[in-house]
Structure formats: structure tokens, C-alpha cells
Design brief:
Layout: E1 9-16, E2 19-28, H1 51-60, H2 63-75, H3 89-118, E3 121-126, E4 129-134, E5 143-147, E6 155-161, E7 167-171, H4 173-176, E8 182-185, H5 196-201, E9 204-208, E10 220-224, E11 230-232, E12 237-238, E13 243-245, E14 249-256, H6 262-268, H7 277-311, H8 325-339, H9 348-362, E15 377-378, E16 390-396, E17 402-413, E18 416-418, H10 423-432, H11 436-448, E19 453-456, E20 463-466, H12 470-480, E21 485-490, E22 493-498, E23 501-511, E24 519-525, E25 531-537, H13 540-544, H14 555-567, E26 571-580, H15 582-596, H16 602-613, E27 618-629, H17 633-642, E28 646-650, H18 655-664, E29 673-677, H19 682-696, E30 705-710, H20 711-717, H21 723-731, E31 735-739, H22 743-757, E32 760-765, H23 771-776, E33 779-783, H24 790-794, E34 797-799, H25 804-844, H26 855-865, H27 868-876, H28 882-887, H29 890-895, H30 901-926, H31 940-961, H32 968-990, H33 1004-1008, H34 1012-1053
Parallel strand pairs: 16-28, 16-32, 28-31, 29-30, 30-31, 32-33, 33-34
Antiparallel strand pairs: 1-2, 2-9, 3-4, 3-5, 5-14, 6-12, 6-14, 7-8, 7-13, 9-10, 10-11, 15-34, 17-18, 17-27, 19-20, 21-22, 22-23, 23-24, 24-25, 25-26, 26-27
């Protein structure tokens, strides 16, 4: 025994059906207190000795830093860099320095937080007494005591609580953002352990799954003193970071500690970012420009060698250079250093604009839902531009299109219809009708068969129901109007008030609802001692095959009512029951217990056993639950379809409900052609698809066609050779409705369409079952729902209402895309204009490899004087207002054509045209021996600064020409850029004595600012260069306004 106690816990692995199986065995309350794992956490990245090497590695991972370091190395080669040795190295060093300071501060804050967390204290059971110890000293298998309002320090299995029945409440808002309290309950075998002596005598083993990232899943089993294993699941599991509320204290045993806890595993896992198509475009442009600059450098070097060979003898005062490979290499490097600034190695300005665009979305008052106090939220700002290119939308129904506030409207019991408002009829029939036993059983089922937890309000003393599902809450509240009130839940029983008084039902087993089962059952012992199975089924097809012959007595009439309810758009549930003998139950109970404690494929094992008891049922009735559409859903659907977006609704409801939701949302209109696929056999499926495609042919592409398909049909279609043919058929339809579809099928169909079409897809949902679909789509949008915040937290964008999708796509998406594209055009324009001037100067100077501008002017052009212009364009360039874009959805798909490689090269050639005119005009004006003030003549330094000034002015006004409205900020960006340059010349010239060895400036402000030639050159050159642009832009805007007015007139007439 002592030998065994050397191990506080052990991780085991084995083999089952050729798969590795892992689990953890924990012996808790062990006397020797040997702990293999520590609860100490460390989120800080660096240490004193590791900082420098790790920091350098982190910095050099970035391509921009690698590139600048490469240029810095090239500049150190003697005679290779015409811009000096430090123009790149110094800014890079400063950047590294600021990054290092930032990293040190951030890491120091993490160290402080880690220290505070690790040195918090909690009570741990040690040698029969509770002692205060630091969190870092907690080990796996320790029993700890957590008091009210304290944070739970590790992942625990709840042993006991101060509250009745071992219940406790925890708050998980720091883990999943949900503010509602979660209820946890220990198993009854440990609920008595409220005193130290009980805990000291408690010995056992917990076997559970190994640490994993799944927040809402936990599987384990508890064995106490060689007794039968007891199943453990999420109801007994307490997460590190959650806060104990409304309970004086709890005792729990540590299962996972430190970095093995679920919250730490999820923090350490890097989320996979969805790649934006814009990133691919940027990379493509980067590679193209890099190749062109490389070829240009080689070409210029060859021209330089040619010029040296043929022209050096004519100019005796020039240094004689040999024409050889070394000279060629040196000149190639020189020209590459000169032109390297044309390569946009870092789109920092795009990151800034993306951040600000995300801020605008987050703070958009039109997308703020006051009722739930929920603003829009951006989690993947890299996808901002993708919002403008959505072609397919996949939407869940319940909670996404509907409010998810459910109400019991009608019911059918034993073939008798009870519409809304017929309470008196039902109460009368409960006493005098031949179906009174069915009515009584029906009301008992809806009052007992659920997992709702009642709580009395402290203010009104009314019962408040906490339900995991809104339909359960609707049924429990609805049963009250018939005199059946559910008011008490204990671990092993529920108590209801009926017309005849209180009835207590012993809960023997709860077979929970799952997506695969689509039903929930409760095995109860009634007050008169009978054992019954109460079953609630969401899918009518699932219950029909489980009925006994005698239980089908009212089947036809009940199903007729059910279909009527579904056609009216109601959510339907079927109810059945079964009497169970004592002997059968005892045998089944043992099998179910064994299935409940397996650690591998527990759900599947439980389902197999559940099948044995959930058969030969008696159908009692069905309910119709109302779930109204959210505000403006039909209007939103119509607008999205007008924007050439195809919409798929994916729902678990039956066919009639799906058809009704299509009509109520206007997805199906009066002129729509409806095609229904509900075949369940592969041969029938193949025949139907071929026949439909043959009959419709290419006309389906022009028809307003809606396809309605079942989950069973999809199961065959997606796994057979018909997959691609079926997909093509679906994509040609204007809209698709999939019913009786599982979460897995939702994800599969979204993934298939996304990959096959290579278009931008958007999935929107509100529940945990929608999360896989959100991850597979190009863009995942989570809606705040009553089913929790799992979809909300797992999405790329979060909104509170479905109709907010219009502004997210039509306004923010279109604006963001248009602005980013114009930013990219303009950024490349301004860099090509500036750097191509070096090419013209190289031609003029005999391919000398010298620079036209001062080395620091080159650096400040891109980093100071023109840095604000692209950002201003990215924030304030808008072609249509919010109202116009929402009024005319057609503008959405027009915006998708903003970017083209043709337009990009038009901007590039426009930049070359501008730079060429600019250079040669300035050269023509100043090339003669013009006498400046005090008898000075202009040299190439003066020429360079005149050209520099003209370039800056032209670039600033070019930005203004492409901005529709010159707001105060636009004016500020343009004029400050020009004034900064003039101020820079004056200050730089005043510091000439200090910076003489860095610059060729010699009294430059006196030379150029006092010369009329300088000012005339700027005015003349700017006017000539931009004149053609002004004419083209005015013509385009005039034609665009006329066309828009014409189109808007047509739309209004329609």
C-alpha cells in the first residue's frame, strides 16, 4: 500500500480498437501529499538571461525586419551605398529599441501578475486540518476549500457544498463572457462530506480524461472505497478562474492544475486566423514589385557599365573605373539600395486603418442593442475587407432569425386539439372526457420531463425558471395555465402542484438530449410507486418508429395537428410515455450505469443502452411553441438577395416549419419556384437529381428558384459520387433551405461551398451547435442569444440582431474594402512617383548610381511627410453615404469590382508619367546658369530639393483629388505635410554646422525660399502634372453621377 501511495496520480494509456486511449487516475486525500504537478503558472515570456536571444529571434521572424537588416548589411559595403551607411541601420536600431522597451514593460507586468496569482492563498486539507497555502503549492489530488466570492484556483471536481443537496453557483464571465450564474451539483455519494472528519475518512480514486481545451466537456468516474464507480460530468466540474457565488463554501478535489487547467490550455493555444484575400493580393503585388526592382537594378548596372565603357574618356575629370564583374556587382547593389524603398515590406498604415475601422464598427450606435446592452464586436479585423465580398450567407434559424423567446401556443392531446385560450376546455376534459388520463399524463410530462431549475425571486417571491433551453422554459410556464406548477427540484426528485395537490416524482434517470438522439427522456417513480418513462422528442420521425401498436391509437390525428402547427411556423415537440416493470428497470439500470462511467465514447455507449428502454412508447400529444421572427428579418433577407447574395437557411426543424420560415422571411416569394428533395435512398436521389437537371437545364440559373432539402438527403448527397453534381445544382438556386440538419452537416456544407466556389462565405448563428459552421465559413458572425455566448465568443464578428448584418456588410464592409483598395493604390503611387525620380536622375547623370536627394530626405518622405495621407484616405474616402448604401443594395456588389490588377497598373503608370514630367520640367527650368541671390548658381542639391518639394505638393494634392469631401482632417493632413517639409528645410539648414558630415545642405533656405524661380516652378509643375488627372476625375464623376441618377430612377420605379 505504501508503495502505491508514492504516486499521487498517474496518466495511463492503452489501446482500444487500434486507437490510443488516454486517461488520468487520481488518488485523492493521500496521506503522503506527494505532488507530481504544480499549480504555479507563468505567462511571462522572458527571463533575465533569455530576454536578448528570444527578443532577437522574435524580431527577426518578421519579414520587414529581415529585409531592413539585409539592406543595412548591404549599406556597410564600402562604396556600395549612395545614401550612407546608417540611414537604414539607425531607424532599425531605434525601432528595435522601442520594441525592446515595450516587450520589457509588458513582460514585467506579466511577471507581477504571475507573482500575485501564485501567491494567493487558499485552504487545503493537510494531515487532517485545513491550512492556508499559496496557490502555487496546490497539487493534483488535493482537497481544497473555496469560500463565497472567491476565485477557484484550479480545475476541481465538486465534493460537497454548504447549500442543500450539494448545489453551488459559479460565475464564469471571465472565462466565456456569460454573466448568468451556472449551477453545479456534487454526486450524492459525497454530498454528506461537510465536516473535516468526513473528508478525512473519504478515500477514493477519480479517473478522468487527460487535460484538454474543451471548456464545456468533462468525463470521469469516481470510485469510493472499492464501491461501484459513479459517473462524473460537467455538472460536477468547476473551472479555474470561475467565481463561487451564493454559497458559503465548497470542497473540491483538484483534477487539473497550473498550465493543465482548461483556461491555461486555451490561453496557450494560438487561434488560427482566417486568411484574408487581401493579404494574398498584397503578397502578390509585393513579389511582383520586388522582381521588377531587382530587374531594374540589374538593368541600371548594365547601363552604367556601358556608359563607363563608352563615355568616360569624354569626361576627363571623372574617376576612371574598370568594367568588370566587381563594378557590376557594386553598381547593382547601389541601385538596389536606391530603389529598395519602392518595396512595401510593411503595410503598417493598413494595420492602423484596420484597427480604426474595427473601432468604428465596435462603436456604431446603430448596431448597439439597448435591450441586451450589446454592441457589435470585431475579433478578426483582418477580415474587414472580406465583409464587402460575401456571396453566400448560411444562417441558423432558431435564435438567429427568431427572438428565441418562446411561448406555448397550442397543443394536441390524444387527437384532441387545444388551441390558445382553451384552458377551460382542457380542465373540463381533464375531469369528464374519455381522454382525461392522456391529458393528465401529458401535463405531468411537460411539468416533469426537463432539466429546469426553479428559484424563488427575493423581490417578488415568484418562481424564476433557469432553463438551458427556451422551449423547456416555455413548456414549464405554459403548464401553469392548466393548473400544473413545477416548483421544487432535488437531486433525486421533482415536486409539482396539480389540481389535486402536490405530487413528488423520484428521478431515477435522466437521459439527456443530444443532437444525435434528438430527444430527452426521464425515468421516474410516480407517487403511487409505478416506474414510468417520460419522453420528449423534437423530431416526429424519431418517435413514430418507437411507438407500440397500442400506442399508435391517436397517431394519425396527432400527426395531422403536428403538420398544421409546422406549416404555421411553430416549433413542434412530441410527447410519449411508457410503463416499466421493476425487474426490467433494475436490469436496464445496471447496464446504463456501466455505460455512464466509461471514459471512451461515453455518449455512444449511453445511447445504445437508452435505445433498449426508449421503445414501445405510447404517443400522448404534441405542442406548438411560438418563436417570433426578430425585427426586420424579411426586409433584411430581401435586401441581401437584391445585393446578389445567395442565402441558405440551415435548421433542425421539420419540412413544414422550414417551408413556413422561408415564406415568412420572404426567402420564398410568390414568383419563386420551389424544388423539394426529400429522398432517403441513394438510387432515388441519383434519379431525382438527374431528372431535375435535365428538365430545368440552364433555365435554373435565371429562375427565382428555392431548393428545399432534408438532412437525410444531404447525408447521401455529400458522401456519394453525386456530391459535385448536387453542389452545382444547389449553387444555381437563388436560395436553399436545409431542414432536419445536424451541426456536423452544417459545417460540412459550409466548408464544401467555401472550398468549391472559392468565394467569400458568411455563416451566422447563435448557439453552440453553430460554432463548427462559423469556423468553416470565410466569416463567422455570432448573434447574442438566450442559449449562451458560445457562438458569440467563437465568431469573427458579433452582433445582437440579424438585421444589423445589413449595416455590417453594406456600409462598413463596402466602405472598408473601398478605402483599403484606394489606400493600396495611393501608397504604391506615392512610392513609385518618388523613387522613379532616381531612375530619371540616373539617366541624366550617366547612370552614376548617385542619389538626387539628401539621404535623410529619402527617409523622412515615407516616414514623416506622407505618412498621414494614406491613413486619411483609408478613413475619410467614401463614395456613398450610409443612407444611400442601405437604400440601394445593388451598390454592394458594384463595390466588389473596386480592385483590379488593371487599375493597379494604371495607378503605377500614372505615377511614372507624373514623375517623368515632374523631373524633366524642373530640370528644364533650372538647368541653365540661373543666378540666385548673392550670385550663387544652382547645383544638383538645389535641383533635388526643388523636385522634392514639387513631388510632395503633387502627391498631397493627388490624395485630395481622390477624396470626395475635403473635411477639416483632410485639409490638416495635406497642409501639415507640406508645412512640415518647409519647416524641416529651415531647421535642417540651421543645424548645418553640426550635421555637415551628414548632408549637402549649404544655406539652402536662403537659396531657394528667396527665389521666385523656386515658387514659379512649384506652381507651374504642379498645375501641368495634375491637369490631366483633374480632367479625367471630373469626367468620371460627372458620368458616374448621371449613371447613378439614372439607375436610382429605375429602381424607384420598380
Amino acid at each position: 500500500m505504501n508503495q502505491k501511495r508514492k504516486f499521487y496520480f498517474i496518466d495511463c494509456q492503452g489501446d482500444q480498437e487500434n486507437k490510443q486511449v488516454y486517461f488520468r487516475a487520481i488518488r485523492f486525500n493521500d496521506k503522503e501529499q506527494f505532488k507530481k504537478k504544480s499549480n504555479r503558472i507563468k505567462t511571462a515570456q522572458y527571463g533575465i538571461l533569455s530576454f536578448l536571444p528570444l527578443f532577437i529571434i522574435d524580431q527577426l521572424i518578421k519579414f520587414s525586419n529581415q529585409f531592413f537588416l539585409f539592406i543595412s548589411i548591404l549599406q556597410q559595403i564600402p562604396d556600395a551605398s549612395p545614401v550612407g551607411r546608417f540611414t537604414t541601420l539607425l531607424p532599425l536600431t531605434i525601432k528595435f529599441g522601442f520594441s525592446a522597451i515595450k516587450s520589457i514593460i509588458q513582460d514585467l507586468i506579466k511577471h507581477i501578475k504571475d507573482y500575485k496569482v501564485n501567491h494567493k492563498y487558499v485552504e487545503i486539507l493537510r494531515n487532517g486540518i485545513l491550512v492556508q497555502e499559496r496557490w502555487s503549492e496546490i497539487g493534483i489530488g488535493d482537497i481544497i476549500k473555496v469560500k463565497n466570492n472567491n476565485i477557484i484556483p484550479a480545475d476541481l471536481v465538486l465534493l460537497s457544498s454548504s447549500e442543500l443537496h450539494g448545489i453551488c453557483h459559479v460565475e464564469t464571465k471571465h472565462l466565456d463572457g456569460e454573466h448568468n450564474l451556472k449551477i453545479r451539483q456534487c454526486v450524492k455519494e459525497t454530498s454528506y462530506c461537510k465536516e473535516l472528519k468526513d473528508l478525512i475518512d473519504l478515500n477514493g480514486i477519480i479517473e478522468c480524461e487527460l487535460p484538454n481545451k474543451l471548456f464545456y466537456n468533462f468525463l470521469g468516474r469516481l470510485t469510493i472505497m472499492n464501491k461501484n464507480p459513479i459517473p462524473l460530468d460537467n455538472k460536477q466540474f468547476l473551472l479555474r478562474g470561475s467565481i463561487l457565488r451564493n454559497s458559503k463554501w465548497i470542497y473540491g478535489v483538484v483534477i487539473y492544475s497550473g498550465h493543465e487547467t482548461k483556461i491555461m490550455i486555451n490561453k496557450s493555444l494560438r487561434s488560427v486566423l482566417k486568411e484574408s484575400a487581401m493579404g494574398k493580393i498584397q503578397n502578390s503585388l509585393l513579389k511582383t514589385i520586388f522582381l521588377l526592382i531587382f530587374l531594374l537594378s540589374i538593368t541600371c548596372a548594365l547601363c552604367s557599365l556601358w556608359w563607363i565603357k563608352n563615355s568616360t574618356n569624354k569626361y576627363w575629370y571623372l574617376e576612371q573605373r574598370d568594367v568588370n564583374a566587381y563594378t557590376f556587382l557594386l553598381q547593382s547593389i547601389s541601385f538596389f539600395v536606391i530603389f529598395h524603398n519602392t518595396i512595401p515590406v510593411s503595410y503598417v498604415y493598413i494595420e492602423v486603418v484596420r484597427f480604426l475601422q474595427a473601432w468604428f464598427i465596435n462603436n456604431d450606435i446603430d448596431m448597439y442593442h439597448e435591450e441586451s446592452d450589446t454592441p457589435a464586436k470585431v475579433r478578426s479585423q483582418y477580415l474587414n475587407v472580406e465583409l464587402a465580398k460575401v456571396k453566400y450567407i448560411f444562417s441558423d434559424k432558431t435564435g438567429t432569425l427568431t427572438k428565441n423567446i418562446m411561448k406555448l401556443k397550442h397543443c394536441s392531446i390524444a387527437g384532441e386539439l387545444y388551441p390558445e385560450g382553451s384552458q377551460n376546455k382542457m380542465i373540463y376534459n381533464l375531469i369528464n372526457h374519455s381522454t382525461k388520463n392522456y391529458i393528465l399524463e401529458f401535463l405531468r410530462i411537460i411539468s416533469v420531463c426537463h432539466t429546469v431549475i426553479p428559484e424563488k425571486s427575493k423581490l417578488t417571491d415568484e418562481i424564476v425558471y433557469n432553463a438551458s433551453s427556451p422551449d423547456e422554459q416555455a413548456l414549464v410556464i405554459g403548464s401553469q395555465q392548466f393548473g400544473f406548477t413545477f416548483h421544487t427540484r432535488c437531486p433525486t426528485s421533482v415536486t409539482i402542484t396539480t389540481l389535486n395537490g402536490e405530487e413528488t416524482y423520484e428521478i431515477l434517470n435522466i437521459i439527456e438530449f443530444t443532437n444525435s438522439r434528438k430527444r430527452m427522456s426521464v425515468v421516474v417513480r410516480t407517487p403511487d410507486g409505478q416506474i414510468k418513462l417520460f419522453c420528449k422528442v423534437g423530431a416526429d420521425t424519431s418517435i413514430i418508429k418507437r411507438l407500440s401498436k397500442s400506442g399508435e391509437k391517436h397517431k394519425n390525428q396527432t400527426l395531422m395537428h403536428l403538420n398544421d402547427f409546422a406549416r404555421s411556423g411553430y416549433r413542434t415537440l412530441c410527447f410519449a410515455y411508457k410503463n416499466i416493470s421493476e425487474s426490467f428497470y433494475n436490469k436496464w439500470k445496471d447496464e446504463y450505469l456501466k455505460a455512464s462511467v466509461v471514459l471512451i465514447n461515453r455518449e455512444s455507449a449511453k445511447n445504445k443502452v437508452a435505445e433498449k428502454i426508449e421503445k414501445k412508447l405510447t404517443l400522448i400529444g404534441v405542442t406548438a411553441i411560438e418563436n417570433k421572427l426578430q425585427d426586420n428579418v424579411p426586409k433584411t433577407i430581401q435586401a441581401l438577395m437584391c445585393a446578389a447574395i445567395k442565402i441558405w437557411i440551415l435548421t433542425g426543424d421539420k419540412e413544414e416549419t422550414a417551408l413556413n420560415i422561408g415564406l415568412s422571411t420572404t426567402l420564398i416569394t410568390q414568383d419563386s419556384s420551389i424544388i423539394i428533395f426529400n429522398e432517403t435512398k441513394l438510387t432515388d436521389l441519383r434519379h431525382t437529381i438527374n431528372q431535375k437537371m435535365y428538365n430545368l437545364g440552364h433555365t435554373i440559373e435565371t429562375m427565382n428558384c428555392t431548393l428545399i432539402i432534408s438532412g437525410r438527403f444531404l447525408k447521401h448527397a455529400l458522401s456519394s459520387d453525386l456530391k459535385m453534381k448536387f453542389l452545382k445544382f444547389c449553387l444555381n438556386c437563388k436560395s436553399v433551405i436545409c431542414y432536419r440538419i445536424s451541426p456536423k452537416q452544417k459545417a460540412e456544407i459550409v466548408d464544401l461551398v467555401t472550398k468549391y466556389t472559392n468565394e467569400v462565405t458568411l455563416a451566422i448563428g447563435d448557439g453552440a451547435n453553430d460554432v463548427p459552421m462559423l469556423h468553416k465559413a470565410s466569416i463567422g458572425v455570432g448573434v447574442v442569444g438566450l442559449d449562451g455566448l458560445k457562438a458569440y465568443n467563437a465568431s469573427d464578428y458579433s452582433i445582437a440582431q440579424f438585421n444589423y448584418l445589413l449595416k455590417l456588410l453594406f456600409v462598413h464592409g463596402a466602405w472598408n474594402y473601398e478605402k483599403i483598395i484606394k489606400m493600396i493604390y495611393f501608397y504604391h503611387y506615392k512610392t513609385v512617383v518618388f523613387n522613379s525620380l532616381q531612375l530619371w536622375f540616373a539617366i541624366y547623370s550617366g547612370w552614376s548610381g548617385q542619389v538626387l536627394f539628401d539621404r535623410w530626405n529619402i527617409f523622412t518622405y515615407k516616414s514623416l511627410f506622407t505618412v498621414s495621407l494614406p491613413i486619411v484616405m483609408g478613413l475619410f474616402l467614401t463614395t456613398y453615404s450610409t443612407e444611400t448604401r442601405l437604400k440601394y443594395p445593388q451598390l454592394y456588389y458594384q463595390t466588389q469590382n473596386v480592385f483590379s490588377f488593371k487599375m493597379f497598373w494604371i495607378w503605377i503608370f500614372n505615377a511614372l508619367f507624373h514623375s517623368m514630367f515632374l523631373f524633366w520640367i524642373c530640370l528644364f527650368i533650372t538647368k541653365h546658369e540661373v543666378i540666385w541671390i548673392k550670385g550663387r548658381v544652382g547645383d544638383y542639391s538645389v535641383l533635388g530639393n526643388i523636385i522634392y518639394t514639387c513631388t510632395l505638393v503633387i502627391v498631397c494634392f493627388k490624395a485630395g483629388l481622390h477624396t470626395q469631401s475635403w473635411s477639416f482632417i483632410v485639409h490638416l493632413a495635406i497642409w501639415i505635410s507640406i508645412l512640415l517639409w518647409i519647416s524641416f528645410i529651415i531647421i535642417y539648414d540651421e543645424l548645418k554646422n553640426v550635421l555637415m558630415h551628414f548632408t549637402v545642405f549649404i544655406n539652402l533656405n536662403e537659396i531657394i525660399f528667396r527665389s521666385s524661380i523656386f515658387w514659379i516652378t512649384i506652381l507651374f509643375t504642379t498645375s501641368v502634372v495634375l491637369l490631366l488627372d483633374i480632367v479625367v476625375i471630373i469626367t468620371q464623376r460627372t458620368l458616374s453621377n448621371n449613371m447613378t441618377t439614372y439607375k436610382n430612377g429605375i429602381v424607384e420605379k420598380l
